[in-house]
Amino acid sequence: MSHSSSSLALAPAQLAQAISNPGALGSIEAYISAVNRLPLLSAEEETSLGRRLRDENDLSAARELILSHLRLVVSVARQYLGYGLAHADLIQEGNIGLMKAVRRFDPERGVRLVTFAVHWIRAEIHEYVVRNWRLVKIATTKAQRKLFFNLRRMRPDGHALAPDQVTDIAQALDVRPEDVAEMEVRLSGGDCALDAPADDEDRFAPIAWLADESQSPDQVLARRRMDTLQTEGLAQALDTLDARSQHIVQSRWLTDEGGATLHQLAAEYGISAERVRQIEAAALKKLKTALAERQADFIEA
Predict the structure, then answer these.
(1) Neighbour count for residue 277 (Cβ, 10 Å)
(2) CATH code that applies to domain 4-133
(3) CB atoms < 10 A from the CB of 124, how many?
(4) CATH code for the structural domain at 214-300
(5) Are 161 and 169 in contact (CB under 8 A)?
(6) CB 187 within 8 A of CB 144
(7) Engineered SS bond to 97: which of 105, 124, 138, 286, CB 3.0-4.6 Å?
(8) Measured distance CA(126)–CA(90) in Å, rounded
(9) Is 31 within 8 Å of 18 (Cβ atoms)?
């Protein structure tokens, strides 16, 4: 361990910042050059550091383990550059996986940290790639993730797969043929911006088809108020009328079988048709006033 204290000409704070943000050294090239100069640990040194971390929670031991494996993260992250994501971001996520591996490392199992850590590094980078490669998450199940990271490599020249090729890939990866076909469609597609670019106001964007003003909050609220007025509000307004006025209004306007005529109601009550009309007009006026008051209560609420 005699070489560890001079592993890199950087202050601990600088180095910690570089681990969490590979671009902190000025450029990704500077970071890679710096971590490649860090010395590797022997098996004995690695075991000793692992025991110190496990038994004493020695954070300086964890730091030494992490530093000696930063070049591994760079190497693994380089394998995922084909997804269009920044190398520094991939390294940063891989460093998180490395730190998780160091925390879980058991020096007594006889396995070098590099073998154990590579799985954690890849897991973190996989999650980052899947989460950020597209706006819409493209792989969620275990089979989809396996296809996501293997299908592009297995497609001949990037061309569409023939049915027999779909079957061969499904057997090779131990997934269903329909999963292969679905992932091929997902990988062949692309993101589409909902809105038009700010400098292209004349462009007709997909959001124009998605907008539905009838579902705006004010329209929905207005419809609910109208529904309430036509049900509960009307029933309460009718309760303010006397029995004869209620019957006349309901017979004339609130029946599904066609409204009764003034003469029919006049004969029923033994009064003139003109008198029925007057009662009806007064009842409707009273209903209108009651409903207007109910609507005003809605607005105030």
Answers:
(1) 15
(2) 1.20.120.1810
(3) 23
(4) 1.10.10.10
(5) yes
(6) no
(7) 124
(8) 9
(9) yes
Q: Where are the alpha helices (DSSP H) in the chain?
A: 12-20, 28-36, 43-56, 59-67, 70-78, 87-104, 113-132, 142-148, 151-154, 163-173, 177-188, 207-210, 217-228, 234-238, 243-253, 262-269, 273-300
d(CA 94, CA 92): 5
Alpha-carbon span 63 to 12, nearest angstrom = 10
Check for a shared fold between 4-133 and 214-300.
Answer: no
- pLDDT higher at 244 or 17: 244
How far apart CA 112 and CA 45 sit, in angstroms, is: 11
Given a cut of 90, whether residue 56 has pLDDT beyond it is yes
Average of per-residue pLDDT values in the chain: 78
Angle at 112 between CA 109 and CA 113, to 5 degrees: 105
* Position 2, amino acid: S
What per-residue confidence (pLDDT) applies to 163?
Answer: 78
- Give the start-to-end residue ranges of the domains of the chain: 4-133, 135-190, 214-300
Cα 23 versus chain centre, distance: 28
